[in-house]
């Protein structure tokens, strides 16, 4: 500790000890504010991470598709002329991403990309006896698709495997068709009908997906959908989920494909998450203002109560700067003690949430924890608030006239 602060520390700590009840109350107030900020931040971050994880658990962060078919005019329009025409939109068909085999290694070389998976997707019917269900048929390379979706963790029964003539079904679809692992059923796409054997049943977390999902080998889907050697979509996952839009924009500038990020596909979800973040920020600001006002009000009262002592100190040679630093130290000490207590209180609240807020399976609704970075940042904010709150009382104390203060 610098020698020139020794006087300020001794006086500040003595003032705080003399007003024990006031000091205790304001420390508790600061601790409550820090606990609210840290707990709400951890809660919202955990909720958002859980929401994004569940939403993106079965889909890519970025998808590349062939551009839509467009009708081109048969005769070029001359400059300066007006043409009255009506063009009927062209019916879209399944189209392969051009040169997708050569594109895969180029995408995998990008530092932002975690994994790449080609897919052939289309619609069809699943048939078993007299039962039939419309399905979303997905042809994948299982090793790549597993790295993207961790499909093996969603297996309810059977073993995850995709050889020619094999398929993985959603649990609800299997229930509707009366299928179990090892049973056979037929897939009809309008042109081709092929018999498949069920190797595994998966729970994708969304009932509608479980009711229509059929996953088959990539080549089987190419045959069923009459797209030999093709891939209708290239799916990417990036290391940072929130960087997907930026990466997609970079890819659009260099590749002639239809490229979408998960933020575009889930615009309403992104809006809801942004609203949550804004609400959390408002709560932090309001709580910080309350903490500042609370500390400032207590220190203002302390200045009024200690006028005589301040006058005596000034008469004994204490400078205005020293008196001002006394109250700044008081604010910093209150902020520091309150921040430590508040971080401990927020950790207790987080523990109570994980113990009491349980789902139907007896597990916590979602993971919530307080990162060290958040705890340190919140604690530093509390100390800063304490110093800022002490500025006005410190200046008032420093301006007191020694003679008048002693006569009070």
How would you characterize the overall build of this protein?
- The model has no long low-confidence stretch (mean pLDDT 82).
- The protein is elongated.
- 54% of the residues lie in helices and 17% in strands.
- The protein has 408 residues and is of the alpha+beta class.
- Helix 2 crosses helix 12 (320-356) and helix 12 runs antiparallel to helix 13.
- The protein has helices at 6-18, 20-56, 100-108, 142-149, 171-177, 207-212, 218-224, 244-254, 262-265, 267-305, 307-315, 320-356, 372-398, 402-407; strands at 62-65, 113-128, 131-140, 155-158, 166-170, 184-188, 193-202, 213-217, 233-238, 258-261.
- The longest helix has 39 residues, at 267-305.
- The protein has a six-stranded mixed β-barrel with strand order 2-3-8-5-7-6, surrounded by four helices.
Question: What's the helix and strand layout?
Answer:
Elements: H1 6-18, H2 20-56, E1 62-65, H3 100-108, E2 113-128, E3 131-140, H4 142-149, E4 155-158, E5 166-170, H5 171-177, E6 184-188, E7 193-202, H6 207-212, E8 213-217, H7 218-224, E9 233-238, H8 244-254, E10 258-261, H9 262-265, H10 267-305, H11 307-315, H12 320-356, H13 372-398, H14 402-407
Parallel strand pairs: 3-8, 5-7
Antiparallel strand pairs: 1-9, 1-10, 2-3, 2-6, 2-9, 4-7, 5-8, 6-7
Helix pairs in contact: 1-12, 2-10, 2-12, 2-13, 10-13, 12-13
């Amino acid at each position: 500790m610098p020698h020139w602060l020794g006087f300020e520390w001794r006086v500040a700590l003595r003032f705080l000890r003399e007003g024990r009840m006031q000091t205790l109350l304001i420390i508790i107030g600061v601790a409550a504010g820090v606990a609210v900020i840290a707990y709400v931040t951890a809660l919202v971050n955990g909720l958002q991470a859980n929401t994004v994880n569940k939403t993106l658990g079965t889909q890519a962060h970025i998808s590349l598709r062939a551009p839509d078919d467009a009708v081109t005019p048969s005769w070029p329009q001359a400059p300066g002329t007006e043409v009255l025409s009506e063009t009927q939109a062209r019916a879209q068909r399944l189209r392969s991403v051009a040169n997708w085999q050569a594109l895969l290694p180029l995408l995998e070389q990008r530092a932002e990309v975690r994994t790449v998976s080609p897919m052939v997707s289309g619609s069809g019917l699943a048939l078993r006896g007299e039962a039939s269900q419309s399905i979303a048929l997905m042809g994948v390379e299982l090793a790549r698709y597993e790295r993207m979706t961790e499909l093996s963790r969603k297996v309810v029964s059977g073993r995850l495997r995709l050889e020619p003539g094999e398929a993985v079904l959603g649990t609800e679809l299997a229930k509707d068709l009366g299928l179990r692992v090892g049973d056979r059923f037929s897939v009809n796409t309008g042109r081709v009908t092929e018999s498949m054997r069920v190797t595994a049943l998966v729970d994708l977390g969304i009932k509608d997906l479980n009711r229509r999902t059929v996953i088959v080998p990539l080549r089987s889907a190419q045959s069923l959908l009459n797209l030999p050697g093709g891939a209708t979509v290239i799916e990417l996952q990036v290391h940072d989920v929130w960087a997907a839009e930026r990466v997609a924009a970079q890819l659009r500038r260099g590749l002639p494909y239809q490229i979408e990020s998960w933020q575009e596909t889930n615009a309403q979800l992104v809006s809801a998450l942004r609203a949550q973040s804004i609400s959390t920020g408002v709560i932090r600001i309001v709580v910080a203002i309350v903490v500042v006002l609370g500390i400032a009000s207590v220190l203002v009262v302390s200045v009024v109560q200690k006028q005589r002592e301040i006058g005596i100190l000034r008469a004994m040679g204490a400078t205005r700067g020293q008196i001002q630093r006394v109250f700044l130290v008081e604010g910093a000490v209150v902020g520091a003690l309150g921040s430590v207590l508040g971080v401990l209180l927020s950790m207790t609240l987080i523990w109570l949430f994980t113990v009491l807020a349980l789902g139907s399976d007896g597990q916590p609704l979602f993971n919530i924890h307080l990162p060290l970075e958040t705890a340190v940042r919140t604690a530093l904010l509390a100390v800063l608030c304490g110093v800022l709150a002490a500025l006005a009382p410190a200046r008032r104390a420093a301006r007191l006239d020694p003679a008048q203060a002693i006569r009070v």
